[in-house]
Amino acid sequence: MMKKIILLLLIGISFVSFHSKTLDKSPLPNIILIYMDDMGYGDLSCYGGLTIQTPHLDRLAADGIRFTSFLTTQAVCSASRASLLTGCYANRVGISGALWPKAGVGLSTDETTIAELLKQKKYATAAFGKWHLGDTKGYLPTSHGFDEYFGIPYSNDMWPVWYDGTPAKEGTNKSNYPPLPLIEGDEKISTVNNLEEQALLTETLTNKAIRFIEKNKSNPFFVYLAHPMPHVPINASKSFRGKSKQGLYGDVIQEVDANVGRILEKVSELGLDKNTLIIFSSDNGPWLNFGNHAGSAGGFREGKGTSFEGGHRVPCIMRWKGTIPSGIVANQLASTIDIFPTIASITQTTLPSKKIDGVDLTSLIKGDLSSSPRKTFYYYYRKNSLEAVRKDHWKLVFEHPSRSYVGQAPGKDGFPGLSPEDVMMPKALYDLRRDPGEVYDVQQYYPDIVKMLELIAEEARNDLGDDLQKRKGMNVREPATIVYR
Description:
Number of strands: 22
Helix content: 25-40%
Oligomer: single chain
Strand order of the largest sheet: 8-7-6-5-9-1-10-11-2-12
Shape: globular
Distance between the termini: 82 Å
CATH superfamily of the largest domain: Alkaline Phosphatase, subunit A
Number of domains: 2
Radius of gyration: 23 Å
CATH topology of the largest domain: Alkaline Phosphatase, subunit A
CATH class of the largest domain: Alpha Beta
């Protein structure tokens, strides 16, 4: 009898052990990160857009989680991308603004990107689209953990062509730019020469992403698809031109939506729906002075290049069928820097030893709406100016010179209106719960809130510095210095 009991116990232990090992070997999630350029908070119909139809992105939101208070770390191209890929405030890794061609600066290879993080688990990795973190061999995506790269090294307006597609006039800044290079791997293979060629980028980049997904359907993969538009100059391919009620800008967004739909269809066709996390967001708010060639800030104040909500608050949608519950709306504070540690958490990879700034959003995206992982946020701009801080729904803006679109007539059809760069913004406290448009300064009513936020600002200045106060931070790192041959 005793022998039978012992035998049954051994069988039970073996079953539990085998079952545990099986659970431990659950497949790693594929990750598709789609990143737009200058898309506004109000451009998608699921975010209140009125005249642009985005059914595929609406479906993505209905199947997953939609964030309503999701912030990019700086309202400008290179800085926001550095933050996304490293989980750090951009000034921590020495990147600011938008890097020009031959800027001599790039993201240091000492920094860990999402692609390098995922190499711990042998992910296949690819980047397609705009890079903007180093424009020559040794500083492109293939030097930052990506197996494949195809795209442009910086913004699509950094070429000798004006925003309406005409050649840049001699003696202007644009006339000094080289032709816009198209890069594969780390070698230039061609150039983008005009708006007709630029119109093909959305479909071409999506084709590249789909082929990569097909090729790696049996392995864990990471796709970073960074569309160069709707950053001006904009253009849509012939099959989408004239289809939107919002003119060419709407055509561009609807073409992006349709191509997101192609990716969703391919993921479903390959049976990868329940094992693929799809993230969709934008690098900053709309470039408002371009009028009908710019997007909508969704009623928030200002736009790209400012520390107001219209510059920082962007759409963010995440879908992971079977893991992220359908139809969730998250009003909690979150940021692009939080994507890095969230991916580390769900893939059980080890975070870098160097300090990062992101927080893990896993509990929130899995449906715990009582969870609020991010409590504070720093609004830096220019090189290293701390222009505002936020805790929960309270935001303290410091006196600072700023770009402003207020009171300026926007441009039209590719021609920009004015957007003065040195409008002095006064110190003000905003309650974003009641006043998301940042209209009413309430600091006189809440002196304790002001003091609390000023203490948070001091923590930021000690850590990262503040050019407005001529202070250097204790924990900032240097970017790469690029020497061109």
